[in-house]
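pinned: reference chain
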Amino acid sequence: MTLFVAVYLLALCCYFYTRTGENRTYRMINKYLMATMYLVFALYVFFQKYDFVSYQTLLIAALILAWLGDVFLVFDFGRGGDFFLAGNICFALYEQIVLVSHGYTIRDTSGCLLLRQE
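pinned: its structure tokens
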């Protein structure tokens, strides 16, 4: 875990450095590296803690779609946006499932739960 955090922070610093520069190739490499590291770490934790047939699989699908959005965003803005949209839909469904599984009703979770007044 410590090694992952150290490498990720190093990649993040490199990304910030290349983001201010003119070299688009290095920026793309750093962006893909960070997105892939995050996805691999999420998959590792997922397979260590959860069964494949669980509602957490929806979260993994959302992360994979977000990763695909990052990859395709560089080449085709529309295609990358489509993947991000599909990923956000998966995230929203996952959030609803988690809230309902913790005792909230669908009525409670529609809209913003934090701003709801009793």
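why pinned: The longest helix spans residues 24-49. DSSP finds five helices and no strands in the chain.
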